């Protein structure tokens, strides 16, 4: 059995779980502190520097929490920093994107029907776009410092919509959604690394030196933290969007992405207002439902159609190897007979509106391009076709898929 592809599958497995674990830790601490900050009440004893306090109960114990604005009179002897949750989330996420989308650029990143480009060109665009996002966002925040934060959020939303459109003009629909999530997550993590933590360190150094900290550093950090809070839910959807081809493979996928961001904002605003004891803004849920219905309608307005021609020149270098490898014709027949009922532009399986994960296996180009996935899902494992279906493969068919894939690697 070919060991290197198996190694990278397990590397992806490990990175994905690390990314999920660290993201949960970051989101949990972020949501908790925003809710805590919004729910603080004025200090009962009016201690110097204490701007708010709150009693909480959890796990059988009571907690009394106080917030100082700008800082306590002296430096605490034991201070806990919340930063590695953010850094680890971004580092594992970028590593995962490199393993899945950069190493598998021909399969997941590049779509010739959208734009033909080489692997390294696509990777360069990907990396440059992430850096571009932070530079533009940070510049706008600095230019609008002290001004109406609502207008700042509107401007940032316009930028996100523009990036959603731009990504769908360059990458595959699946990669476009993932990159929009990575674009936003990069801004969020960079907020922590370049703004929030450095500003907190300035305050700490002032305390150590016996100086009175400038309150502007706390205000700037709080602004960026609030931005992160409102961006969290859309980012989660984008990172999980590969499960929803009706979103990323739809004709108007960039509009769907834009509406998903609004849905995340309306839901967070409901809970933030509730934590602030500002009442229950039920209209936000009505608006969210309306946005979701719009997404549903847009998803059926058109699915990307693959060109019917099967020009071998359109195949990438790796796909060409698998298309010419020994056993391809046999595997092509196996796949189109047993897999295309579901993995088709218009699935024949009753009740299925779109191909699972947007994967189509109807043409020579599609089968050759998706060689690794076919080998993993139906050759090495019995994940596909689903167990118990009348399309189930016998052992000889799975062995044929393995022989063909290994021949393609050697070729």
TrEMBL record:
One of its GO terms (molecular function) is electron transfer activity. It comes from the Bacteria. SUPFAM superfamilies: Cytochrome c (SSF46626). Keywords: Membrane, Transmembrane, Transmembrane helix. The keyword Transmembrane helix applies. Pfam families: Urate_ox_N. Residues 6-298 form the Urate oxidase N-terminal domain. The chain crosses the membrane at residues 20-40, 87-105, 117-137, 149-170, 176-197, 252-271, 283-305. This is Cysteine desulfurase. It comes from Celeribacter ethanolicus.
